[in-house]
């Protein structure tokens, strides 16, 4: 009796297979965070079944938990810092280095670790400033250099940027024979265009478009745990609000512990969007918030904010309530929602 992710396994795997096999560039699947709703161990096993050479993980902590789940190379996306508990001696691990000082510190520790060097893009998250790449050529030769990393923004076409930064970077370390870049957020077609334009090996690091690229294979559903009929004026919930009308309280699996109703902040740009956002999240103003749960084809209101493991929904009297044991659908962000179980169908 739980929040359940139903996966149409053959459909999902067919999408994964097509994604990895079509096109000319190698795909590096990313397993990080909540494992895009599947869990990182599951993704690591799927990546193994796909036969990819490298799996990318978010952090060194995630790496430590995935050791047995994937047999190939493991790329850590978070740049190495001197205070991190990194397995520098591990042959399978490729470290990301994003500051000249870190490269020097890494070289001082010896052992010739495998590294990719991240170059700062218009994203401006991590990376060595492209004008300062000359400084890294010498220490880079003391590592096993595996290529440059480029983390690109989602918005816009960044083929030209990738091409220019890669050319600059290759030029700065002209003595190295490695012509490989690891890019994020270029489509496979765009990556393949860049690969032919600069005659380089391009690898695309992909999470969302791979694991969540065919949403029709995925459905998140919550078990109905209880249904209570209420008269107008009767009180309910932690807050003991009175029902404004007669209707039903429907208690469903799925609460804050699963990430239900916790949304990553969205980039709200227009005044209208802001108004919509206030209206949707307007618990304070109206005492109500729209839930992600659907009953009778419609998203229903939370009766009150979600609890840890379940949520209380308000259903007007004219809608037939579901029965305990039924399942209802919910629309979730997979990167912030974790199901109790996954059912492979
Ligand atoms: C998370 C991450 C990715 C994968 O992002 P998606 O949008 O899920 O494909 C790629 N590169 C870096 C550096 C990341 O942190």
From TrEMBL:
Keywords: Isomerase, Pyridoxal phosphate. It comes from the Bacteria. One of its GO terms (cellular component) is cytosol. One of its GO terms (molecular function) is pyridoxal phosphate binding. Gene3D superfamilies: Alanine racemase (3.20.20.10), Lyase, Ornithine Decarboxylase, Chain A, domain 1 (2.40.37.10). Its cofactor is pyridoxal 5'-phosphate. Residues 8-210 form the Alanine racemase N-terminal domain. InterPro entries: Ala_racemase, Ala_racemase/Decarboxylase_C, Ala_racemase_N, PLP-binding_barrel. This is Alanine racemase. The lineage of its organism: Bacteria, Bacillati, Actinomycetota, Actinomycetes, Jiangellales.
